[in-house]
Amino acid sequence: MEAALLPVVQTINSYLSNYILVFLLVGAGLFFTIRTGGIQFRRFGEGVSRMFSGFSLRGGKQEGGISSFQALATAVAAQVGTGNIVGACGAIIVGGPGAIFWMWLIAILGMATNYAEAVLAQKTRVVDADGSVHGGPAYYITTAFTGKFGRFLAGFFAIAIILALGFMGCMVQSNSIAETMNNAFNIPTWVVGLVVVILAGFVFLGGIQRLASVTEKIVPIMAIVYIVCGIIVLIANWQNVGPAFALIFQSAFNPAAEVGGMTFGLIAALSQGAKRGLFSNEAGMGSTPHAHAMAKVSEPHEQGVIAMVGVFIDTIVVVSITALVVISTMFVGDGAFAQDYAAAVAGGLSKTNLAQAAFGTLLGAQGGSIFVAICLFMFAFSTILGWNLFAKLNVQYLFPKAGKKAVNVFSVIALVFIFLGSLASNELVWELADLFNQLMVLPNVIALVAMSGVVAAIAKEHKGTRKND
Fold first, then answer.
1. Residue 198 neighbours by CB distance under 10 Å
2. Cα–Cα distance between 84 and 80 in angstroms, integer?
3. Gyration radius (Cα) of the chain, Å
4. How many CB atoms lie within 10 A of CB 195?
5. 127: helix, coil or strand?
6. Facing residues of 385 across strands?
7. DSSP 326-374
8. pLDDT tens digit string along 301-360?
9. Do the beta carbons of residue 301 and residue 120 sit within 8 Å?
10. Helical segments of 68-185, H only
11. Topology adopted by domain 8-453
12. Interior CA angle at 283 toward 197 and 382, to 5°?
C-alpha cells in the first residue's frame, strides 16, 4: 500500500509546494510586511524585550489562560522540532545548500505573517465564564467570513490541522526520534515509540497547564544546548564557515552551481525552502496562534511581537546552526558531498543521519549520533506536545457538545499514531505530513488577508520604537 500511495502523495505535494505554497507564503509575508510597515524590523527589539521580561522556568499556574512566556514556549516547542534538524538536512540534500537562503527569506517575511496570526488570535478569542480560553484560526476565520462559507473554511482548517499535526505530524516526530535513537543507541524503533507514547500520554492527561509547565522548561534548555554545541563545531571548523555561507547564496541564485558533481535547480531550492520553511517555523500555517490566543496580555500587539521572535529563534537561529554545521563539514572543503555527491548518498547519508555525521566530525561518529539523538528527542517530543494541544483545541471546536469525551478519544488515537510513526516508512510519513500542512495554509491565509485591515490598524498604533509610544 505504501508503494502505491507514496507517488500519488508526492505528485500532489509537488504541485502544492512548487506552484501554490511558495506564492502564498512569500506573498502573505510581503503583504503583511507592507501593511504593518515592516513590523518585524521596527518592532523586533520590543519582541525580544518582552520575551526576556517574561522569561521564567516556572511560570506557575495562570488563572484563565497561560503567561505570555508560556505561550511563546508552547509555540516555539511546536516550531522547533524535527524540521530544524531532519527537515533542514532534507532541504539541503534535495534542494541544495541554496534552499537554506529561501528558508531564511520566508522566515523573515513570515515574522510579519506570524504577527498577524497572533494579533488576530488574541482579538477573536473567546473566554468562557469559567475562565477557559478558546482561540485560533477557526475563530478568526468565522469572524472574517460569517455564514456557511466561514463555517466551511473553519471546519476544513480544523480537520486539516487534526490530521496534519495531531496524527501525521506527530508520526514524523516519533519516526525521527526512533530512527536517530536507533542510529545512536541501537534501540529497536518500537521500544522508542512505546517510551514516547508513555511520556506523551502523561503530559496529555495534565492539560494545558502541565503542557505549558513542561515546555517552558524544555524549550530554553534544549535550544541553548544545541546552539552552544553547534557554535563549538563551527569554531573548530572556522575555515569552512565563510565558504559555507558563500555556497548558500551561490546555490540560491545560480541553478548551475555544482556540489560534488551535482547540479541543483532553482525551483528545487525554492520549493524545498518553502516546504521545509513552513514545516520548521509554521508561519502562515495556523498552528501557533492557538498558543498565542491563550496568553494573558493587555493588548494583542504585545503577543504579536513576541510571536515574531518565535519564528526568528526557530529558523534564523536554530535552522542556521544546523545548516552551517552540515554545509561547512559536508558540502565544502573535503566534505563527503563536496567530493562526490552521488557516492555520499549511496553510502547511506540521508536527511535522518546527516546532522549526526556532521556533528560527528568534532564529537566522533558515536558522539555525534548520541548528541543529535538526544537533542532531536527533546525537540521532537516538545513538538508532539504542542501539536497535540493545537489539534485538541480544534477537536473541541468541531465537537463542542461532546467536550471531554471527544478529546479523550482523539488523545487515544493520537497516541496510536505516535507509536505507528516509529515503525512507518520515513518517506511516506514526511510526504503525508507535508500534504496536510500545506492544506492548512489555504484557509488560514485567506482569512488573514481578509482581516488584514484589523492587523494593519493595530500595527499602526505602534509606530516607531518603544521609546516613542
1. 10
2. 6
3. 21
4. 18
5. strand
6. none
7. HHHHHTSTT-HHHH-HHHHHHTT--TTTHHHHHHHHHH-HHHHHHHHHH
8. 999 999 999 899 888 998 999 999 999 998 888 888 888 888 888 888 777 788 888 898
9. no
10. 68-79, 82, 88-95, 98-124, 137-144, 147-161, 170-185
11. Amino acid/polyamine transporter I (1.20.1740)
12. 20
Positive or negative, the CA dihedral 69, 74, 75, 81 is positive
How far apart are alpha carbons 289 and 202 in whole angstroms? Answer: 24
DSSP state of 18: I
Distance in angstroms (rounded) separating the CA atoms of residues 404 and 283 = 29
- Are the beta carbons of 455 and 116 closer than 8 angstroms? yes
pLDDT tens, position by position, 396-409: 999 988 878 898 89
SS3 call for 176? helix
H or E stretch covering 133: strand 133-134
- Which has the closest alpha carbon to 273: 463, 21, 38? 21
Task: Please report the pLDDT score of residue 433 as a whole number.
Answer: 80
Q: How far is CA 112 from CA 30, 41, 48, 53, in A?
A: 8, 9, 15, 22
Count Cα atoms within 13 angstroms, Cβ side, for 65. Answer: 23
- Cell digits of residue 451: 482581516
Under a CB-based contact definition with an 8 Å cutoff, are residues 369 and 356 in contact? yes
* 334 beta partners: none
Is residue 464 helix, strand or coil?
Answer: coil
Handedness of CA 72, 434, 381, 133 (dihedral sign): positive
**At 159, which amino acid appears?**
I
Give DSSP secondary structure letters for 224-290: HHHHHHHHHHHHHTGGGHHHHHHHHHHHHH-TT-EETTEE--HHHHHHHHHHHHHHHH-TTTTSTHH
**Cβ-based neighbours of 328, under 8 Å, separated by 6 or more:** 234, 237, 240, 241, 243, 244, 335
Residue 81, all three cell numbers: 522540532
The DSSP string of 99-126 is HHHHHHHHHHHHHHHHHHHHHHHHHH-E
Q: How many CB atoms lie within 10 A of CB 388?
A: 25
Q: Scanning the structure block, which residue is given the C-alpha cell 509606530?
A: 463
Q: Amino acid identity, residue 149?
A: F
Domain boundaries, the chain: 8-453
pTM passes above 0.90: no
- How many other C-beta atoms are found inside a 10 Å radius of the C-beta of residue 341? 21
